[in-house]
Design brief:
Helix content is about 30%, strand content about 35%. It has about 130 residues and is an alpha+beta fold. The strands form two sheets. A four-stranded antiparallel sheet has the order 4-5-1-6, with helices on one face. A two-stranded antiparallel ribbon has the order 2-3.
């Protein structure tokens, strides 16, 4: 089954080594999103780029070294507009510095041929 809907895409950019109370910010945000009932998110760690500090972060051949270097984390959330304020509140309370972009997206969700109550709930933006 195919469900088409309009949602908001929130992208959160911040340094991988950013911590609050000795805990990585990306772990804090994920835990808070789960607690708030946010449908889902994706975390991507960059291995090359630069930000406002103009510090270039180059890639390395060893995955472990790449993960431990100072680079950017990008968390992408696609959620209904009704939950946007909840997401922004979580970000406000837990992100010391970074960048957030928000845009409208046209989403197509592919699901099983059997429609579950969860599918209907997602399609109705509740």
């Amino acid at each position: 089954m195919k469900i088409r809907d309009f949602k908001k895409e929130i992208k959160i950019y911040f340094k991988h080594l950013e911590v609050v109370n000795n805990r990585p910010v990306y772990k804090i945000l994920i835990d808070k999103f789960v607690e708030a009932g946010i449908t889902g998110c994706t975390i991507i760690k960059s291995n090359f780029g630069y930000g406002v500090d103009m510090k270039i972060v180059y890639p390395d051949n060893l995955l472990n070294e790449i993960w431990n270097r100072d680079s950017t984390i990008i968390i992408t959330v696609i959620e209904s507009e009704s939950k946007l304020d909840d997401i922004i509140k979580i970000i406000d309370e837990n992100l010391p510095q970074g960048l957030v972009s928000i845009r409208d997206v046209d989403v197509i969700r592919y699901t099983k041929t059997i429609v579950t109550p969860e599918d209907i709930k997602l399609a109705e933006n509740t």
